[in-house]
Amino acid sequence: MSLPLQQHIQKDGFRLRGTEMSRIDGFSDVVFGFALTLLVVSLEVPKTYAELHNSMRGFLPFAICFFFLMMVWYAHYRFFRRFGTHDFGTIFFNGCLLFVVLFYVYPLKFLFTFLANAVLGSAQNYFESWQQVRELMLLYGVGFATVYLLLAALYWNGLRQRQQLELTDLEVLLARSYVSDCIGVGCIGLISCITAMVLPASHAGLSGWVYSLIYFFKLVHGRWTRKKIAHQLALEKLTATPH
Question: Which domain holds residue 202?
């Protein structure tokens, strides 16, 4: 891992324990790479301009899905660099996370292909009933929540081994903030699911606006975390000051 990237990950004060490539890292990267392959707009080279034009219409949903997968990959990458654990719990939760990522590739691509075509005014024949719209929003919400709750489970499992990993008080605080952050984002996905079930089927698509709450949650959670960190650093400085 390059020094600038290492410094970027540990800038919050969490020491890096997983700086070497492991078999879990290798396997996980293969799975993420395969998931990205499944998102490719077309597996065949266009033979006519019309086919090329149709392929280019899939660029926007592909780009959005690529961005979302990269976000999950980076969160996964940061965890393994911070903790570097290889116990059964880590392997189990990591395996579940990779399974969900692979399973949700096509639903994710379908959703954003539909939204992109809706913006372009060509979203026709995607659904046979409004109930299917509700089911899609539920499917996406459950997958979204599961990904972040599994990330929270990975951090919780690392926090559970605080003594073996020799986590400092600051690192314990940071680990708890990572857990609460992932749980909070995951709960927003569950709130979206509840909203989709409560709203009439014809308005179930409006549940997607619930995800805008992520911005406000991150804002509040970030401020709370920074205050906790500042308090902990002040306490450590006071403790270290000779009397």
Answer: 3-240
- For residue 210, what pLDDT band results from cuts at 50, 70 and 90? very high
pTM: 0.87
How is residue 104 annotated by DSSP? Answer: T
Among 65, 153, 68, 148, CA closest to 113: 65
In degrees and rounded to multiples of 5, residue 19 shows phi and psi of -85, -10
Burial class (CB in 10 A: 0-12, 13-18, 19+), 130: middle
Determine the residue type at 134: R
Q: Kindly state the tokens that stand for 92.
A: 């189990």
Alpha helix (H) residue ranges in the chain? 3-9, 23-38, 49-56, 59-83, 88-103, 105-119, 130-160, 162-165, 169-198, 213-240
Residues 37-48: pLDDT tens digits?
Answer: 888 755 566 778
**CB atoms inside a 10 Å sphere around CB 165:** 19
Q: How far apart are CA 192 and CA 209, in angstroms?
A: 8
The pLDDT tens digits of the residues spanning 40-79 come to: 755 566 778 776 767 777 778 888 889 999 999 999 999 9
User: Taking Cα atoms as reference points, which of 112, 17, 29 lies closest to residue 74?
Assistant: 29
3-state secondary structure 31-69: HHHHHHHHCCCCCCCCCCHHHHHHHHCCHHHHHHHHHHH
Number of structural domains the chain divides into: 1
Place of tokens 């293969």: 30
